[in-house]
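Student: Send me a single protein entry containing the residue sequence and its fold in token form, directly below this note:

Tutor:
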Amino acid sequence: MSEQHDYDGIKYREEKSSPGVFRILFTVLAVWGVCYMGYYLFSGWSSQSEADAARKVRDDRKQAAHKAVEATAVGASGSGHKVEAYVVAGKQLFGSFCAPCHGESAKGGVGPDLTVSKYKYGKTRLDITKTISEGRPGGMPSFSSQINKEQVESLVEFVLTLK
């Protein structure tokens, strides 16, 4: 099976076929690969269903948190008087904390215009609360260390009245 070759005084051994172990290993790998590809392609499985389930869970949590924030705002108000007080307090806080970037009339400046109908990160109570509390990339700082939750709620109420 093997032949001896002599080139420049160096003897080489030339094999006509690969060792049996390697042929068996290659055959097993090829068969496994074909079976796996067939199963993957024809079984109908895809990661889309897993992604949809994760998205549904995330949306359900977001809706539950949104309802909790709205229930807190409506339940805490009892009537419209507390909301009006929040708006007045929010206007004062806006002048102190937000006006340097968003402008006195909230029409924008360094920060974006807050009188538009859609915000980049959402215009729900929960989205605005998160933006004020945690900040956003690109220039919006977090105010959680400077103002308390009630002041954040006041700012949210004021921002929601902007048009």
Summary: The longest strand covers residues 3-7. The mean pLDDT is 82. The radius of gyration is 33 Å.
